[in-house]
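Quick one:
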Amino acid sequence: MNGILPLWKEKGMTSHDCVFKLRKILRTKKVGHTGTLDPEVEGVLPICIGRATKVASYITDAGKEYIAKVSIGRSTETEDAQGETVSCDDSEKMITREMLLEVLAQLTGEITQIPPMYSAVKVNGRRLYEYARKGIEVERPARQVRIEEIELLDNEAEFVGKEVTFSIRVKCGKGTYIRTLAVQIGELLGYPAHMESLVRTVSGNFMQEDCRTLAEVAQLMEEEQVDSILRPVEDVLTEFPKLEIEPELLDSIRNGQVLPAVQLLQEHDSIILTYNGQVLAIYKNHPTKTGLMKPEKMLLSNE
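Output:
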């Protein structure tokens, strides 16, 4: 069994839980997810099966899209609704649509984020959440992330109350913390804030309408129809140019050999080599040997 299974991760499960259950359902060990979703977050979680696990990193690095509900008036330890309250502002608030749109515009493009203490980012070889659970505060490295677009989904002209909530759609690059984005929105408005809820609607080329739940996958497995929902490895690699090779190069590529560079690599960082339409490998220019190219990722074994 090889391919990418677009899974709809339901609330209450970790990404690892999904992998564990799918190994049992699909009766195969070679299963991997493509980026952690917190237990209270639901949404698109592409699962790589068989040789497709080799392209998991390309899905992880691809753009994502989320719908988040932001709550203004209270901040938490975890930056989401599950954490203990850190600060609270019970004043009556009045935030106009124009104020909010201006703040969202300020947070669009390249921005700096400091990952939450309750996150999987590693510092000195340990996850931040490991320090947080022991009450140890460590310096967190700031990181640059890219927000392609933030759309305000509510139509109100004014947002009024002691606790103000609104929904946004965020299109972003890898490494973005939507929890932290919610806090940053609050900071620019002058109030504590947290992310009340989050749904991931897009991951790379996989969308909500493509996905199936674990129960649906189990049913398809019983009916021997799972192959009907598996997407080919090629669906992850659409941004790479393709080059169909000559038959005499097949064994060399299967064995991961260094080869003379092709003209396509003068215009692109990486290319896909195919034979009879099947993806064999991703090649890039050799970093030290001019005029040669080397495999970046082998997608077909030499069996």
